[in-house]
Amino acid sequence: MGLFGGNTVCSLCGEKAGITALKLPDGVICHKCLSKCSPLYSRAGKSFQEITDHIHAREENARRYQAMHWTNTVSGWIFADTESQTWCCPVICPKNPDLLRFADLIDFELLEDGISITKGGLGSAVVGGVLFGGVGAIVGGGLGKKQKDVCQKMTISIHLRNSFTPGFEIPLVTAETKKSGFIYRNAKDSAAKIITILTMIADSQNAPAPAAQPAGSSSFSLDEIVKLKQLLDMGAITQEEFDAKKKQLLAL
């Protein structure tokens, strides 16, 4: 940051830079343009071009977000679309949350006052706790330890394979909350539902890919069967030989 003269303009939008502009060796970016960056994006050590690329990506992100149709949601906490394999957490930036790919998810962990309750991710099953339906209660894992009557902090920590957004936390409880109260129960319910969606995202990447068929194998088999039928019609092979070879080609 630095003070600029009245004639200094933003290298990105061309407007006056202002006193809160970011001065870089290869350009100047005004506060208005900087506000378009993701709140999870670190500008430290980034060049003007790198930040500009991020801002342009965020503008495209906003257009895509408006056009999304979500198949799985948890009221303002997490949205997911299984068809496009896209998800986001609008609680981080409600107007323009970063759209992420299912493949971006590495792992996740539910923490209560620093104690791990449950976790999972790519290549691993959810461990540490048991998620129940209905109210979405979470038991087991860290909750099996000595309990306090209040919760100071409950978060879901998420690590990503993403150059713009390496990871973030979903803040479910941010101040002292009685565990007997509605706020805590609601946070625990939301946590269970969020973990369910994150598990679904991870499982979609853990599922083995279907075995690939050799290129042109189907058409090759059909061509061979046609040739065999011609031989059968000519009397060169018997019906039994034709049937046996046909089963072999079709892997029956």
Summarize the structure.
The chain has helices spanning 31-34, 48-67, 182-206, 217-234, 239-249, and strands at 22-24, 27-29, 72-74, 78-81, 86-88, 100-101, 105-112, 115-121, 124-127, 130-131, 138-139, 150-151, 154-160, 167-173, 177-178. It is of the alpha+beta class.
What characteristics describe this protein?
flat; alpha+beta; about 250 residues; 4-stranded antiparallel beta sheet; 5 helices; 5-stranded antiparallel beta sheet; 3 domains
Question: Please, could you describe this protein's structure?
Answer:
- With 252 residues, this protein is an alpha+beta fold.
- The protein folds into 3 domains: 1-67, no CATH class; 102-206, no CATH class; 217-249, no CATH class.
- Helices cover 31% and strands 23% of the residues.
- The protein contains 5 helices and 15 strands.
- The protein has helices spanning 31-34, 48-67, 182-206, 217-234, 239-249; strands spanning 22-24, 27-29, 72-74, 78-81, 86-88, 100-101, 105-112, 115-121, 124-127, 130-131, 138-139, 150-151, 154-160, 167-173, 177-178.
- The strands form 5 sheets. It has a 5-stranded antiparallel β-sheet, covered by helices on one side. It has a 4-stranded antiparallel β-sheet with strand order 3-4-5-6, covered by helices on one side.
- It is flat, with a radius of gyration of 28 Å.
- It starts with 21 loop residues before the first strand and ends with a helix.
- Mean pLDDT is 82; it is low at 130-141 and 216-220.
